[in-house]
Amino acid sequence: MCPFSSLRDHVDSIDLGALDQTDVAHVPYIVLIIKALQTFAASKDGGNDNADSSSDRWTNYPARLALKEKKELRNVIGKLVEVKSDEENFEEAVKNVNPYCVPYEIPHEIKQILDDPAAATVELRTAATEDGSNLTQQ
Prior knowledge:
138 residues; mainly alpha; 8 helices; 0% strand
């Protein structure tokens, strides 16, 4: 569950401890989930946060969280800041732990299309509408 690089950089640039309550309220809930995952992964790794090595820190995420771990993660979200914000973004983060903590898999039918040899090469073909007009640009 490693976020893409620009999202990782954005999350790493936010120091929740340095923000006041108003600024914390404007942090997107997905950032809160990822911050909580950082803390959660560090706690599962024996407390070794690897704060100086962001690439190591991001590889500590489990591929899939069990129900018990999702509950733990929700508790971590609530403890991200000293002064608990009762803002909507924290509620959204807690509500969205399930859908965001499951690895995405390409559906089998789509994978078949992408794996088809015909999808490997793209050719320019003229498409015609029912009235015979040409759809391709000339």
